[in-house]
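Sanity check. The docking grid for phenylalanine depends on where the pocket ends up, so I'm generating a full predicted complex first rather than guessing from homology. Inputs follow.
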Amino acid sequence: MEKEILKIKEEILFKAKKIKDFELLRDLETKYMGRKGEFTKVLRSLSGLSTEDKKKIGRLANTAKQEIASAFTELKNTLTGNEKESDFVDVTLPGKKEERGHKHPISILMGDLEDIFTSMGFMILDGPELESDFFNFEALNIPKTHPARDMQDTFYIDKPNKNGELDLVMRTHTSPVQIRAMREHGAPLRCIAQGRVFRNEAIDAVHDTTFDQIEGFMIGEDISLCNLVAVLKEMLSRVFKQEIKVRVRPGYFPFVEPGIEVDMSCTICGGSGCPSCKQIGWLEMIGAGMIHPKVLKYGGIDSEKYSGFAFGMGVTRLAMMKYGIDDIRLFNGSDMRFLKQF
Ligand code: PHE
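Predicted complex below; grid placement will be based on this.
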């Protein structure tokens, strides 16, 4: 009996030394000291002994029990100590620095343009980048067989639309939003729409297959080219934060009549001529004009009652001018050395 008690005690103390966490300690405690534990069983069996043996062995058993209990308490303390250590947070250590992104230069400029136009009462609209041939060309007075299609070659999608027809194109300009807006909101109307457009271009410093445009249009009774020029002059002056002069030349776009090209005075030389404006003093910036009656009709607007102007400008080109960037490829190039400058 005495031997048995000592053996179990040694066994427990030996196992306890190896324990590294609370869960194992709890298991060990239940295994030996629990209600049905092995050590408990031995203690219970003492009741069958003679009074003399009970005294002798009882004392031994009690000392063993105390030894085990204090070993367990000690072990618990060490384990708690360890745990406390791992929970400890050193708030004085330097933190991990997260890289923080910021807006792309095109997005910055688009935000500025939105502010400028909303302050003049224009709504901001959106249109799909994957557009139907109808909205991108047909409804803008560019019929299928018309040579004007050559002005804007694009990527035709060889996946049929919902009606099984092959008519999806990557939009070549933001002008299709004109038709969508007219159909949805009717006249009078004042909107801008900005976004990506796509063309089948040979890429070089000034041409890319993907770039950004802003479309603006205003439809009402008695809207004229004067309103158009005033709005564009205001917009350019606010973007460049200086008084900008504009000049108007005739230009051809099938969806406007008359059509014009709007040039702005060169911000670098102020109009006297420099390499940036190829010594002309003017920069070609915007295609515009009075919305063609056929286009108004496609949009469901009475062209006898209403007239309107429309313009389209490359936001990418505007950004190149504003920030003095000479290569369009930088905008979609993901070069951090370029992007970090904004
Ligand atoms: N959509 C034309 C282009 O991309 C620009 C434009 C818009 C011209 C509206 C006139 C009126 O070239």
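Relevant for the grid: Residues 138 and 146 are 10 Å apart (CA to CA).
Also worth noting: The chain has two domains: 2-83, 105-339.
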